[in-house]
Each structure stands twice: as C-alpha cells, then as structure tokens.
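Hey everyone, long-time lurker, first post.

I ran two proteins through the pipeline my lab uses and got sequence/structure pairs for each. Pasting them in order. The first:
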Amino acid sequence: MSRHSYAAAERFILSREFFGMKLGLENITAFLESIGSPQYGYKTIHIAGTNGKGSTAAMLAAIFQAQGYKTGLFTSPHLVSLRERVRVNGRTIPRSSVASFVDRHRKALSKRKLSFFEVITAMALEYFARAGVDIAVIETGLGGRLDASNVLSPLMTITTDISRDHLEILGTTIAKIAREKAGIVKESVPHLVGLLPESAEAVIRKRCLRVGAPFFKLSRGNFRTDSAAMRLNFKYNGLELRNIAPSLLGTHQLRNTALVLKAISILRERGLVVSKKAIRDGISNTIWRGRFQVIHYRRKPTHVFDVCHNASGLESFAETFQLVFPGRRAKVITGFVKRKEHQKMFDSLSRIADSYALVPLKSGRSTNLDELVGSINWRGIPFKKYGSLKTAYSKTLGNSDPEDVVVIVGSHFLVGEFFEKYRVR
C-alpha cells in the first residue's frame, strides 16, 4: 500500500464531516447489513456516559487483553490521528486496513451519505470482525439512543456518568440527557450504572424495567478509596480485591475503576473467564493518553495534559491536581469549544491556576476569545489571549521555572494539537 492510498482514504473519511452529525440508525444499519452485519461476529460491551466512558472502556479492554482475549477498542474522539479510535490489543488500525475499507466500500458509503462518525463506526465494526477479535469494547460517540454505535447485540451495557454536556443536542436537564443515554439498554442484557444523580438513575432504572434488562448499579458500599495513595479496595458478589492501584490518576479514575470491577464481577458471574491477575494487570497497565497525563521534563516545568472539556470534568481535574500537587498552582494553557458552561469550568480551574493563557482551537467550534473574556469572572487570576497555541506555549515557557507546573487542559482539539506539534507520546 502506498502512503498516497492511505492519505486518500483519510481525506475521504474526513470529507464525510460535510454531512454533519446525523443521529439515527437507519443508514448505518442498512450499510452493515449489506456487508454481512460484522458486529454480530464477536462479543461486545457497549458504554455510554457524559464523562469516564473512554477511561472505563480502556480499562476493560486492558483487562480482557491481559486475560488473553483478542480485544477490540472503539473510542472517540481522537487526539492526533483518526486511527487512534480503532484498536486491537492496543494497536491502532493499520493504514492499509483504513485504505482497504474505503476502497471496498467508497461507492456504497457515498451513495448512502454516511456521516464521518457512521463511517468510522462501520470501519471499526468490520475491522474487528476481520481481525478475529474475541471481544470488543465500544464507546458511544454522543448520547446513546440514536448514536451510530447503537447497532450491537452486547453482553453488557454500561452508563458511566451523567452530567450536563451537549445540551443543545441531548437536552437541557439531567433526566432528558439520561433518556438519550438509556437508549443503549437492550432486552435481557444487564445494564450497569455508575454513581449517577437520582433523577438520571430513575430514568435508566425505568427503561431497564420496561425492556426487561437486569439493572445493576455501583454503590459506595462496593468500594473504599484512599485518594492520597490513589488506591482502592473492592468487594462484590465473590470478587474481592485489595490495594488496587490504577495507572490512570484521579479520584474520578478510582470511581471509574470501581465501576470496571463491578462490570467484571457481573460478567464473571455470567460465565466470562477473567482472573484476578488479569484484572490487576489490566488496571495497572492501562494507557489512555490525555487523561491527567503527567510528564516530568528535566530542566523544564512538569507538564500535565487533560481533555476534560465540561464542568464536571474540570471539577474532577482540579480535585486531582490538588492531590497530586498539594499546595501548588499551575500556569494554565486552555481552549474550549462553544456552548459549554464556561464560568463553572473556570471556577474549578481557579482553585489551581496561577495564570491563564487562552488560545483559539483549530476548529470552527472554537469559542470566541473576546466573547469569553467578556463573560467570565476570572476570580482575580491574570489571563492573556494568544493567537495560537505555539505563541501561548512559547510565552508560558519563557515565564516559567523548572519547578513550575504547566497545565494544558480543555478540548481534545487543544491537547491533540499540542501532542502533534510537540510530538508528545
């Protein structure tokens, strides 16, 4: 395969963004049926949620891989390359497989006018079948009910968390958002929820009852955490584990880990073989870039990267920063998309920020910095607008000492641009 053929395939897939975001299952279902419904050829776990679904999916995939299952993982969005969204045993989908998929199906994808996310989803589901995976963990893109990934016959469905995000699409209340997420619930398929607001839990419990799906929930009694040591103990239904240390940092990651452990305990009870050793190995070796990712440089400030891009995510980020860097403050480089609860987000950042460098995103969805500056109460923290990430980073480094902490936090667009520009691994 030539480099050109992959580049052409990537251009074709990205061009599908012209069709925007299409909520509905008719198009992708018809396309998948036309190629033999590959998604039914292996076991799947389907995960929805406002925050935590990617981390939960990554941990589950790492556990299954540690057990010896050939494991697929489908997540979104990507940071640098769209290939990151589709992985088998931790390896991104090869360029040749992307090019082959487009070559074989370009005519049908164009005729059916599949959107970018529909194309990526279909490519992942077919690739997992062609790769011969035993099990695949599938993260929804947005919502659940009408999300293109909602074409599965899964072993289990999971809702990690529900908070206010994508309000213009999913609804303005927690209950309305929960209704959309609950669309992944399937008849007779166990559904597990994390620590949800009462109104959200009630909606999902009702949906499970209506379709005959066994309902499970993570409870505080299932686990105990030591936030300072970033460890937890877990006990449920015959699965007892002590002193679990996730590779992913954060108090929110301890909750995500507890949810993963409850999911595994339910799957074990239903016959899926997963050893305690695989659980420990998977959780301690999960790699999930851009999630409180700390890089210690010699003769440079410590850098922290996080794609927390809504109010709930920023609150967890600030809490984790205070635990990992007690008593310290950060020089924050940040950028967000429009239609977010920006004041709440900066209220959380004000707990840890020494200064802000505000940057535009390389996206039409980037918030207008002038409008942002005029709408935010900055709590007395100095800020400055920059025309680019490159300039903001250069100025921030120029004003930093090696003992400082530089935080790059916000949209996937921002962290992804940084990773690509500065080759962060």
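...and the second, right after it:
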Amino acid sequence: MVGFSMFAAKIGAYFLTSSEAIFSDAAESIVHILATGMALFSIILSNKPPDESHPYGHNKVEYFSAGVEGFLIFTAAVVIIYSAVSDIIKGPELEKLDTGAIIIFLAGLINMFLGFYLIRIGKKTNSITLIADGKHVLTDSYTSAGVIVGVLLVIFTGYKLLDPIFAIAVALNIIYTGYMLIRESVGGLMNEANHAVLNKITNVLTKNKKDYWIDIHELRYWQSGDRIFLDFHLILPYYFNIQQTHKEENEIEEIIQNEFEGSQLKIHFDFCVNELCKYCNYTECTVRAFPKDTNFDWDVKKLIGKPIYLIGKS
C-alpha cells in the first residue's frame, strides 16, 4: 500500500512538472512495487518447512528474490537514462517545480523511515529479502533527496538542463545499488563464505574446546536465510567408543544451536595417530607416543584447512 501511494504521488508530480529527475524517482518506485511483490512471495515460500523435494528447506529463494530485484533496478536505470538523454536532445519543458519538490520531499521522508524499519527487521530475522527490500526503499529516499537538490537548483538558477543531468546521476546511483544486490544474490546462491560468520563459529568452538579435542579441520558452512548448515572433522583419541563420540556430538550441537538458532550440524569423527601426540593437550592419555611440545592456533585458516599434522605436507 505504501509503495502504491508513493508511486501515485511521484508519477502525479511528474505529470505536473514534466521533470525527468522526478520521473527517475517515479520509475524507481515502480520497480519497488514489483520487487516488494517478489519479496512477499519469497518470504512466504522460504517459511515452508523442508520436504522431500527440498530437504534443506526453501530459504534460498530469498537470494533469487534479491537478484531479481537487482535486475529490475538495472532496468529502471536504463529507462531513466534513455528518457533523460531524449529530454536533453529535445530540450526540457518544466513547470510547477516547487509543488513537485514538496511532493517528492514528503514521499522521500516516508520511504526513509520505512527503509530503516525493514532493514532493522531483516537483520533481526536474518532475512536477506527484507534487508534487500529495505535497502531499495532507502535508495528510493536517497534518490528523492538527489531529485530535490536537482529541482531546487533548476528553480534557483533557471538552468533547465540540470534536470535531466540529475536524472542521469540518479540512474547511475541506482545501477550501483542493483549491482550490489545482484552481487549479494550470486554470493548467497554460490555459498560464498561470510568471514564474520566464520569468525563467530571459530570463536565458539575455541571457547568451548576440550583437552581431548585434538584438532578440528575441513570446517565448512553454508547459510540459507536464518539457518546455518555446518560440518567439520573432529579428531578424538582413537580409543573413544561410539557412545563417547556421540555424546561429544550432542554437546557440540547444543553449543552451536545456542549461538545459531535453527542450525544443523554434521561432524565427521577422525581417530588420532602418533603424529598428533606432540599437538595433543589431553594429559589423561595413557598411550601417548610422544610428549606434547607444539602449540597451534585454532583460527579460521586452521579450522577450514587440513589436519594439523598434514600442514606443510604435499
């Protein structure tokens, strides 16, 4: 409803003024309406529980939605540039710019508050769709601010070519926003690692590390909406039985769940070999082949890499 109201106000201001800068703002509002519909569809679909055809759930549709929104923004920018260049060639004919500026100011103010609200809710729920939609709404408000500056300059200077020039500047800014959304969408669909999340996982594991957790390696994760899917290899003493390893898995799963609600964890357990004795902190071990004499950091680079005793070996 807000989107339709903003579009109606802006397109009305365009017909009132014939301003290409105002038209650029109205064109972005059209994109926002279409993108909001896509966002609503993706949120509904992403909330469906996993099923036989989608065992990991439907959350990744949000990345697709963000990509579509980015493409729509690109399309709007092309239309704006084409219209502005045409206006430069034929010469702009402007009227009632003061009234148009007031309308755009009010629409931009509403969009600013709405954009910040959507981003806040999106971050709270880890919804890339709401965050993308909020960023687009904020971009719309920034566009309105730029348009107002352009219109006011035309009013005070009388130089009408500033209007289509500002429209092109707005379009270039929109193109950048579209690129960032598409970049984020592709990154999510390609399971691109988020270093902030990796650091958080590493810190959680390091903080809760036990002496007999000899080494964690080949840590991998991917994210779908607000859900984390995590797996890694954990080396334990070779004489631990299945019951002990299962207990460790349950405890680690609980630790991860406390930090990443709704996450899923898979651990591949490896048994220790003699080469690991020099790295092992487990003082209760009675079959140690060598004393411990080497420390290593449990940082992101280590945890996503090879077993400690194989580092440096081909």
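Reply from user beta_strand_b:
Welcome! Quick read of the second one: The mean pLDDT is 83. The first strand starts at residue 215 and ends at 224.
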